[in-house]
Amino acid sequence: MLKRCLLTYFILFLVFFIPQISFSCPQDQIQSLLEFKNLLTLNINNHYTTVITLEGLETWKPNSDCSKWQLVRCNTRFPTREVIDLNLHSLVFSGSVSSSILRPVLRISSLVTLDISSNFIQGEIPGDGFVNLTRFISLDMSDNSFNGSIPPELFSLKTLQRLDLSRNDIGGTLSGDIKELKNLQELILSENFIEGDIPPEIGKSKTQSQNSNCNMFSGSIPLSVSQLMKLETFDLQNNSLSFEIPDGIGKLVNLSTLSLSLNKLSGGIPLSIQNLTNLETLELENNNGLSGEIPTWLFGLQKLRILQLGGNKLQWNKNGSVYAQSKLTHLSLRSCGLDGTIPDWLKNQTALLFLDLSLNKLEGSFPKWLADLNIGTIILSDNKLSGSLPPSLFQSISLLVLALSRNNFSGQIPDTVGETWVMILMLSENNFSGSVPKSISKIHRLMFLDLSKNRLSGGFPRFDPESLLALLDISSNEFSGDVPAFFGSNTIMLSMKVLGLTINSLEGTIPEGISNLKSLKVLDLTENNLGGSLPSSLGNLTGMKESLPSSSSPLPFMYSFTIEIHDLAVNWKNSKQGLANRNLYLYTLIDLSKNKLFGETPYSLGNLKSLKLLNLSYNNISGLIPQSFRNLEKIEILDLSHNNLSGNIPQTQSKLSELNVLELSNNKLTGRIPESPQLDRLNDPNI
Ligand SMILES: *[C@@H]1O[C@H](CO)[C@@H](O)[C@H](O)[C@H]1NC(C)=O
Ligand SMILES: *[C@@H]1O[C@H](CO)[C@@H](O)[C@H](O)[C@H]1NC(C)=O
Ligand SMILES: *[C@@H]1O[C@H](CO)[C@@H](O)[C@H](O)[C@H]1NC(C)=O
Ligand SMILES: *[C@@H]1O[C@H](CO)[C@@H](O)[C@H](O)[C@H]1NC(C)=O
Ligand SMILES: *[C@@H]1O[C@H](CO)[C@@H](O)[C@H](O)[C@H]1NC(C)=O
Ligand SMILES: *[C@@H]1O[C@H](CO)[C@@H](O)[C@H](O)[C@H]1NC(C)=O
Ligand SMILES: *[C@@H]1O[C@H](CO)[C@@H](O)[C@H](O)[C@H]1NC(C)=O
Ligand SMILES: *[C@@H]1O[C@H](CO)[C@@H](O)[C@H](O)[C@H]1NC(C)=O
Ligand SMILES: *[C@@H]1O[C@H](CO)[C@@H](O)[C@H](O)[C@H]1NC(C)=O
Ligand SMILES: *[C@@H]1O[C@H](CO)[C@@H](O)[C@H](O)[C@H]1NC(C)=O
Ligand SMILES: *[C@@H]1O[C@H](CO)[C@@H](O)[C@H](O)[C@H]1NC(C)=O
Ligand SMILES: *[C@@H]1O[C@H](CO)[C@@H](O)[C@H](O)[C@H]1NC(C)=O
After folding, report:
1. Has this prediction a pTM greater than 0.85?
2. Which fold would CATH assign to domain 538-680?
3. In sequence order, what are the residues at sequence separation of 6 or more whose Cβ sits closer than 8 angstroms to the Cβ of residue 148?
């Protein structure tokens, strides 16, 4: 009876106590995690710019079982459940936190995976913290601001399979000890400042060449990497590496991604890459020193999907013929010395999403088969292509980016243009003529439109106020008619320089409604026949009133596009400056020079505090220079020459600290020339 009783107690004990006591995570790990949480919280209290989310972390409470916490995963070991996975991705939204917050987390020696990516962490990686992590498999510290070099302790994590330190500020060279990570499958170090060259003494100095191991210990990254037999992803894009791709790379039979774009590589594409039959991505773009012939066998790699070779000194093999076994999705052969017509082996590349053949010497017409391939991005700028565009090109629902600038295309822009979903349409510096189809304003998502330097004529179609159009350049054509007032509040740049005869250019006045263009940053209407006076609503251009931080982008998601918007240019400091996408906020300007504007300068122009250039020269503007101009605190260039201005030159206060070009000649101004610390050039005004 007693025995039965005891047995019952024992069973009760097992049922009620074990799950609660024994299957809980260790106290010291609970403490470590709470310490991490406290450090984070302390950080927001100390630095008011730091913003964190407590989502998930709110479940981290003292006296509770951490195996039940969010962001934490434990194993099922008996008697304690140890923490194995921590997903601490993106807890911090802004500001900065010190890399020392990692220390308590790294004390959890049972850790198998740690994701601490996107947390605004600053400072060096606390290498000594990693010494006890003997089961570590995956470390993701990407998208922070870690600096210094990769600590040697990381190379002793023999179990590591995945190391992602991309998008940090890590410098130094990569130690040859990387070869110790025998289990590494993914090595992702892109977007850092890692340098690495094969030390020049290799193979030269006698003392070193006698040592057969010298290559392995000389910090020569590629040779060490070719010992990482399990490697599948090798991504060192956008660093400052300067080695030759070693032959040994061909030994990494499981390699599927080799990304070395945006470095300083030299040498050629080694033959051994032929043996990488699992290769899906080969990115070698923008390495100035990479040279030699592009081997045609690359297209025989059946699994290859992404091949980016542009921006090197690589040359197309003119004698070789291509029998593409691969079904590419991305192909860049920018500046690879291609000539003749657009290669027709591309015909069966039916999976293509991205094609960049710009900066070559391609001739002939835009083939209909290419138009029918349904490619998303087609970049053929800077070639010698001619003829008209196949109408079916614009009937593809896939087309997002079409860049054909600086070719010799001619004929009309097909009527079908309104049927696309294209977002970026760059047709400048060709020989297109006729009128622009009205349907162009129906393109739903059109954001960048550059039709400059063609022979287009007629009126320009009206865009909806809701249109997404951000950049419009129709300059140097033969358009006529009014300045269309309504482009939509998203428009950042309006450039309408029109060449040609008087009767064929833009006339009328600058519409009052111009201030509806809330985002406008660049208003370039130089060399037209605009009359009337300057509307005072110009002072209401919101985009020129406030200076936004240079980091903020008008179109955040545009960053995902790989093409540079180098086609757009404005008149800046007497030279043409390209409006690269990222530079948009560097230029805030109004250029209305060479028109027939008259009347007085509106006082409201002084509201445009972020304006950097104001050129009103070669008009017939009269009256005084408004006192409000002293509020143009960002102005660098002010050209009011060749007008009918009179009265005193206003004496400025210190606010015009950026002014460095002031042109007032050919007016009827009197008085002293204002002083500005930056003023280095000053045309002698005719006083
Ligand atoms: C790393 O960043 C921290 C904090 O920003 C700074 O104090 C330290 O000097 C930097 N170290 C290196 C090696 O640049
Ligand atoms: C590593 O483990 C040893 C022995 O348990 C301990 O003394 C040391 O503090 C640990 N180091 C770290 C960084 O956790
Ligand atoms: C390259 O990296 C730098 C920072 O290291 C970054 O600013 C830049 O945008 C990157 N370039 C590309 C094309 O990713
Ligand atoms: C390549 O991957 C396969 C399948 O994952 C694996 O069996 C093989 O061991 C790997 N090869 C090497 C050299 O690691
Ligand atoms: C490719 O691999 C084979 C056998 O695995 C080897 O004999 C050959 O030398 C390799 N080719 C190159 C160019 O490395
Ligand atoms: C291409 O072929 C021509 C003649 O057949 C030859 O002279 C030339 O050297 C070859 N070029 C290359 C790069 O093989
Ligand atoms: C493309 O055509 C070539 C013949 O020109 C053929 O050998 C190859 O298999 C085709 N590739 C694909 C992906 O269909
Ligand atoms: C452009 O093409 C036209 C034919 O459409 C031709 O007459 C002209 O010579 C070409 N111009 C250049 C620079 O190739
Ligand atoms: C533009 O096309 C016309 C024929 O339509 C041709 O006469 C002219 O030479 C071309 N202009 C250029 C610059 O190629
Ligand atoms: C400028 O904007 C203000 C406030 O929105 C408005 O009251 C004023 O009428 C506008 N001025 C012009 C000239 O459009
Ligand atoms: C202002 O515009 C005129 C005419 O377009 C140009 O000649 C002049 O150089 C410009 N002024 C400055 C300072 O850029
Ligand atoms: C400029 O405007 C004045 C009146 O302000 C007028 O008398 C003069 O004729 C105009 N000059 C030109 C060239 O239009």
Report:
1. no
2. 3.80.10
3. 123, 124, 125, 170, 171, 172
